[in-house]
Amino acid sequence: MARALRRAGRQVRAFVRNPHSEVARALTTEGITLAIGDLFDLASIDRAMSGIQGVFSVQTSSPAGEISDEQEVMQGKAIADSALAAGIRHLVYSSSGAAGKAPTGMGHFDSKSTIEDYLRALPLSTTITRPASFMEMMLLPGMGLNSGHFFFFMQRHQAMQMIALQDLGRINAQILCNPERYRGQTLELASQALDR
């Protein structure tokens, strides 16, 4: 996302925990400035919002084990509140293709639905994107691509929608750069549907 915005000629500030990480250092070589902080530190979020026009909001997903579903919701709400207080022009929230009105019973998806509902209730220009599964996940051990058999949460004859992270970054960058066109929309994003 940050790189796609930079390629579009935008000034970009990336919110990072560790400015010395390999990823953070790579961003700076591309002309991206860093705002150092943590999504559990409200003051650092507020500092990062100072002087910017748009926000791309994505939180660490709870299945990663780093945070709970409740903490993910707290982070999403904190970003929204800070963006509103700072007078941000537009916020793009990256949710999930399985999020929506009906509870799924899976905290990973329901937490995103809660954040979506919170955003819709705020007087803040927002677009919600719901990406399908990331293609890059299929390269992880245990997915079966190395043996020629695809194993994932699906039935034998059920297609699964996916999207590549690079495509997702470009799409979200376009949305953030064109708030008038996408304001108030919820967009399902996928580039392919694969089956076994």
TrEMBL record:
Keywords: NADP, Oxidoreductase. It comes from the Bacteria. One of its GO terms (molecular function) is oxidoreductase activity. Its EC number is 1.7.-.-. It is an enzyme of class 1 (oxidoreductase). Residues 2-194 form the NmrA-like domain. InterPro entries: NAD(P)-bd_dom_sf (IPR036291), NmrA-like (IPR008030), NmrA-like_oxidored (IPR051164). Belongs to the NmrA-type oxidoreductase family. This is NmrA family protein. It comes from Klebsiella grimontii. The lineage of its organism: Bacteria, Pseudomonadati, Pseudomonadota, Gammaproteobacteria, Enterobacterales.
